[in-house]
Design a protein that fits this description.
Belongs to the SUA5 family. Its EC number is 2.7.7.87. It catalyses: L-threonine + hydrogencarbonate + ATP = L-threonylcarbamoyladenylate + diphosphate + H2O. The protein is α/β, with parallel strands linked by helices and about 325 residues long. It folds into 2 domains: about 5-215, DHBP synthase, CATH 3.90.870; about 220-315, Threonylcarbamoyl-AMP synthase, C-terminal domain (Rossmann fold), CATH 3.40.50. It contains 10 helices and 15 strands. The protein has helices at about 10-25, 45-55, 70-75, 80-90, 110, 125-135, 155-160, 200-205, 270-290, 305-315; strands spanning about 5-10, 30, 35-40, 65, 95-100, 115-120, 140, 170, 180-185, 190-195, 210, 235, 245-250, 260, 295. It has an 11-stranded mixed β-sheet, with helices on both faces. A 4-stranded parallel β-sheet has the order 12-15-13-14, with helices on one face. Helix 8 (about 200-205) links the parallel strand 10 (about 190-195) and strand 11 (about 210). Helix 1 crosses helix 6. It is globular and about 60 Å long. The structure holds threonylcarbamoyladenylate and magnesium ion (MG). The site of threonylcarbamoyladenylate has 27 residues, from strand 5, strand 6 and strand 10.
């Protein structure tokens, strides 16, 4: 598609227009509490194929299906008692559940990549919920950025990467959480991706420890990580000071001299919300100064720090 991308306000008229574009098989980016998603009808193969094309995704990774309510989720996935308990505790919110797919329910095989499971999420953002309700069906929605680049937390970020390639973007301002949803599979409970719900909160609700699993949960060998969330400049982690020619992103009061700071007070929630916008700002600064490396201060590996470190390790991974 090479038409102009419609920039839609997050009011009733904008949401009605977005739903209309989606019903016609178009792609519309919309805000969630985590990041902006690039939405398309999860039952429409052409729309889903269009998502991969717009993002320039090399492979068909499975996508997350967004729903308006629990009843809609149960149309597409099989919920055990435990799954329903967890959904009731954390939905709407930044948690994605991987559950057995109901194959007859019509989700495109391009969404599930042919798996027998489906990843489902009920977002909390009022604009996302209004859009899902107006559309009345499931939306496949990965983050609304070109593959491998930094995830968007504002409508302008979406336009920077995808303008002219998608039908519309609903502008709902900045995303509050700032990192993608936590992905959990059950039987046994397994953390597939650290994200906006801290693993500790899930372990407490489940009353059992999570098994680590999925490559997203094991970023211990950076060489094995696929590059993702990558700014233009290189990324150096655990940086307690800036070296010559680096842009330094700090965290906490010990890094007062940094060029930018994820959270001057050392608050992980604030840091997660600021992460992607700060990486973009550091990239611009690096370009202005002719710097080739962004150095990032150490972030504690607890709570939302796990999700932040996961994204930073991917940003620092060798570029493929
Ligand atoms: O916060 C978020 O989750 C954002 C916003 C837009 O909602 N969405 C997002 O979607 O990050 P997406 O489609 O990029 O997430 C895809 C990831 C895959 O990389 C994979 O790890 C996991 O979801 N996934 C999807 N289906 C799966 C399945 N059946 N089994 C295991 N993992 C699955
Ligand atoms: Mg993404």
């Amino acid at each position: 598609m090479n038409n102009e991308t419609e920039r839609l306000p997050a009011d009733a008229a904008g949401i009605a227009r977005a739903a209309e574009l989606l019903r016609a098989g178009g792609l519309v980016a919309f805000p969630t509490e985590t990041v902006y998603g690039l939405g398309g009808d999860a039952r429409n193969d052409r729309a889903v194929a269009g998502i991969y094309a717009a993002k320039g995704r090399p492979q068909f990774n499975p996508l997350i299906v967004h729903v308006a309510d629990l009843a809609m989720a149960e149309r597409f996935a099989v919920f055990s008692d435990q799954a329903r308990d967890i959904a009731q505790a954390f939905w709407p919110g930044p948690l994605t559940l991987v559950l057995p797919l109901r194959p007859e329910a019509g989700i495109s095989d391009l969404v599930t990549a042919g798996l027998e499971s489906v990843a489902i999420r009920l977002p909390a953002h009022p604009v996302a919920r209004a859009l899902l309700t107006a559309f009345g069906g499931p939306l496949a929605a990965p983050s609304a950025n070109p593959s491998g680049k930094i995830s968007p937390t504002r409508a302008e970020h979406v336009m920077d990467g995808l303008s002219g390639k998608i039908a519309g973007v609903v502008d709902g301002g900045a995303c509050a959480v700032g990192v993608e949803s936590t992905i959990l599979s059950l039987d046994p409970p397994r953390l597939l991706r650290p994200g906006g719900i801290p693993a500790e909160a899930l372990e407490e609700a489940l009353r059992q420890p999570l098994e680590a699993g999925g490559d997203a949960a094991k970023p211990n060998a950076p060489g094995q990580l696929t590059s993702h969330y990558a700014p233009g400049a290189g990324v150096r982690l655990e940086a307690t000071e800036a070296r010559a020619g680096e842009v330094w992103i700090g965290f906490g009061p010990d890094t007062a001299g940094a060029d930018l700071n994820l959270s001057a007070s050392g608050d992980l929630v604030e840091a997660a919300a600021a992460l992607f916008a700060t990486l973009r700002a550091a990239d611009r600064l690096a370009q202005e100064r002719g710097a080739s490396v962004i150095a990032v201060a150490p972030i504690p590996e607890k709570g939302l720090g796990r999700a932040i470190n996961d994204r930073l390790r991917r940003a620092a991974a060798p570029r493929g």
